[in-house]
Structure formats: structure tokens, C-alpha cells
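Priority: medium. Attachment 1 of 2:
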């Protein structure tokens, strides 16, 4: 196995904070929550969501997009186009066989599934679209990116629930270090704001019920947190070996220096309160990066705003990293985008390194006294960041931790 450094040279971001890296990052750094009552969820026990404002499939993807793509693919194509452009790459000139695509996605085309199932019940089997299957299966998000960018190398989707995006980035790094690819488009995409999915999470008691104050509903690490707000979006990174990136004169935004992945093997949905495997994933990622706990200046936390998850994550972070790093959770602004969350947060971590800026965690009015972390709140914090951690945890107890460093 090669030990070549892996660089991030391009970023794309479509989130509830905006379409594009600049708009999203500006809103995230302002700490302005994007949670709203959602008319599409009217009548459900919980009708709050964080959806992408002003996103038009016809404008941002193409006129035929609504006929052939579910929304999770549309969001990802838009983010990927921005990432490839920002990397200064031209798919017409690269060797597609050396370009891979690894995307995290937990659900797939749930809106298409619901819409077509309703059509079948109301109008019969003949009314169901012949494109139902290719629009809903999760692997199609990677497949469409391969077609879009003439990328004929390894092409697949990782599904580790809410850790999917981070798992994809860790996997993409390995493809580069093993010299399987020269370039990998990686990250995550998800569009799970649908009545059935939202109802399922509500039935589990996972969602905030702060219906009268939706903008304050997602409040990671706050003493009054009561659940997450569902979101959607896509974060895409262009990754290359650092030597290749510098040889072509690309701007290296950050290095993906370490990766750790473990399983709790504890419960279907609840985190292991002892956090043994989360701690192991953190330590593995640090060792892989060749850095120590004291080197970490910033953590972009999973920070879902659920009572159990925030407490378990905070205990693990405090135990492994101590009280030093500046911690944030962008889910206070953009909600929880499930399989895309880890990728969106990795993009934000790269931007934090680039700009020397830790965004605030929205809605932290009173930090939970049992969470002994330096949680950044109210205002962004300017600081040099040489080493940062982005961690993600999914149902099934699947954990993924990335260590990113300044170039």
C-alpha cells in the first residue's frame, strides 16, 4: 500500500444553506438556522425540514432532469459540477479509466418511490413509470456522475446510514493510495425529506418536536435539545494524490490525512453509551494521519441534536481529544442530511482549514453542562487550523472518522 498524501483540490456544496459553496458557507458561518415548517409535510406529527432553497432541476441540472433523475441525484450532479470546475479539471481531456466515483447515500430515491407507489394505488400498474427502478436505486447517483464526467474507473455507492458520506471519502482515499485511480469524485448526496421517511423518524422519537419554533429546533449540544431536523443536500470533493495535484499546478485546499472506521455492534439505532468503538475509530484516524490528540485544533462533530447521540459523541471526543479543540456542528444550520451529512461536513472542514474559521453551532443557548467541550456558538471563531477531525456515526453502529490537515 502506498503512503502517498491525498489532496482535496475541488469542492461542491448544495445544502439548506444555499446552492454552491460560497452561499452555503456564508450562511453556515453566520449560524442562521434554515429549519422551517414544510408544506409538503403538512398534517404529519413533525413538519419541520431543512430543504435546499431555490434549487431548480431545470436550471441547475438540465431541462430533462425531472424526467430521469430523483432529487438526490439532481442535488449531487449540481455539487459535482461545481467541484470539478473548482478543481480546474476538464473531463474532456482526462483519462476516464483512471477517474473513480465513490458517493455515500443512505436512502436513494424515496420521493420517486412514494410518488410512483401512490400512482399505482390510484391508477393501476400501467401508470407506473418505466424509469421507476433506475430513478430510485441508490447506486444510480454514482452511475450518473460516471456518465456526466466520462469517468469509467471504479464506480459505486457506500451505504453506512448517516456515516455514508464520510465512508465514501475514506474509501476514495484508499483508491488513490493504492494507485487504482488518479482522481476520485467523492462525497455524498441525499434527499430524504419525504412524508414516509419523516414519519418513520418521528415514530422513532428521533425528530425535534419544537414545531412552534422551527428555527430553534436543531440545537446540537444544547441542554434543551430534543431531536434532529431532517435535511437534504450534497457535498462533493475532488481528490487526487498530492504529488499529481501539485504537478499540474492545482490549488491544494487540504489533505485527507487519516481515516478510521469501526462498528459498535451494540444496537440498531442507539449509540453504545460506552463509546468503545467510536474512541477506537478516532484513535485509528489520528494514528493513520500521524498526529496526536493534542494536534487537533478543530472538530466538525456529528452533533445531531439528539440527547443520546450528542452525549455519547461528546464523551468520546473529550476522552480522546481532551477539551482543547474548537467543536462545531453545522446541523444546527442545515439540519441532518442523513447519508450526505458526513460529506457536507467534510466540505465544511476543508473550508474551515482554508479560511481559518470555525463556524458557530446554531441555537446553543445553554450548553449541556455534562458536555465538557469547547463548543463554538453565537459567532464564528477565527483561528489557524492545522489539523481537524470530521466524525460521522450511523444507525447500525457504523462509525467513520476523517482527519484533514492544512496543505
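Attachment 2 of 2:
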Amino acid at each position: 500500500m502506498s503512503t502517498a498524501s491525498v489532496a482535496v483540490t475541488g469542492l461542491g456544496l448544495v445544502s439548506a444553506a444555499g446552492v454552491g459553496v460560497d452561499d452555503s458557507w456564508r450562511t453556515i458561518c453566520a449560524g442562521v438556522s434554515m429549519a422551517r415548517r414544510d408544506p409538503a409535510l403538512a398534517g404529519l406529527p413533525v413538519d419541520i425540514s431543512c430543504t435546499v432553497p431555490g434549487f431548480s432541476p431545470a436550471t441547475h441540472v438540465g431541462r430533462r432532469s425531472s424526467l430521469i433523475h430523483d432529487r438526490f441525484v439532481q442535488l449531487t450532479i449540481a455539487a459535482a459540477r461545481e467541484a470539478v470546475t473548482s478543481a480546474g479539471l476538464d473531463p474532456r481531456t482526462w483519462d476516464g479509466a483512471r477517474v473513480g466515483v465513490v458517493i455515500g447515500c443512505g436512502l436513494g430515491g424515496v420521493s420517486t418511490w412514494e410518488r410512483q407507489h401512490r400512482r399505482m394505488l390510484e391508477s393501476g400498474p400501467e401508470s407506473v413509470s418505466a424509469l421507476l427502478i433506475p430513478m430510485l436505486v441508490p447506486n444510480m447517483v454514482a452511475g450518473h456522475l460516471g456518465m456526466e464526467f466520462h469517468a469509467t474507473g471504479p464506480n459505486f455507492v457506500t451505504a453506512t446510514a448517516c456515516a455514508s458520506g464520510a465512508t465514501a471519502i475514506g474509501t476514495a482515499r484508499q483508491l488513490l493510495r493504492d494507485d487504482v485511480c488518479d482522481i476520485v469524485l467523492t462525497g455524498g448526496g441525499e434527499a430524504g425529506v419525504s412524508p414516509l421517511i419523516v414519519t418513520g423518524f418521528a415514530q422513532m422519537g428521533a425528530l425535534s418536536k419544537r414545531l412552534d419554533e422551527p428555527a430553534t429546533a436543531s440545537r446540537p449540544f444544547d441542554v434543551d435539545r430534543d431531536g434532529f431536523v431532517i435535511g437534504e443536500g450534497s457535498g462533493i470533493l475532488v481528490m487526487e494524490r498530492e504529488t499529481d495535484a501539485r504537478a499540474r499546478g492545482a490549488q491544494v485546499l487540504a489533505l485527507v490525512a487519516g481515516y478510521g472506521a469501526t462498528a459498535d455492534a451494540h444496537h440498531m439505532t442507539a449509540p453504545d453509551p460506552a463509546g468503545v468503538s467510536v474512541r477506537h475509530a478516532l484513535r485509528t484516524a489520528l494514528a493513520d494521519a500521524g498526529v496526536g490528540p493534542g494536534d487537533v485544533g478543530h472538530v466538525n462533530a456529528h452533533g445531531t441534536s439528539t440527547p443520546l447521540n450528542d452525549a455519547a459523541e461528546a464523551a468520546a471526543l473529550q476522552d480522546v481529544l481532551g477539551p482543547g479543540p474548537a467543536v462545531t456542528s453545522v446541523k444546527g444550520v442545515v439540519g441532518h442530511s442523513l447519508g450526505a451529512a458526513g460529506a457536507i461536513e467534510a466540505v465544511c472542514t476543508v473550508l474551515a482549514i482554508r479560511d481559518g474559521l470555525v463556524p458557530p453551532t446554531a441555537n446553543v443557548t445553554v450548553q449541556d453542562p455534562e458536555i465538557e467541550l469547547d463548543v463554538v456558538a453565537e459567532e464564528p471563531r477565527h483561528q489557524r487550523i492545522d489539523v481537524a477531525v470530521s466524525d460521522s456515526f450511523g444507525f447500525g453502529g457504523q462509525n467513520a472518522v476523517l482527519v484533514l490537515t492544512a496543505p
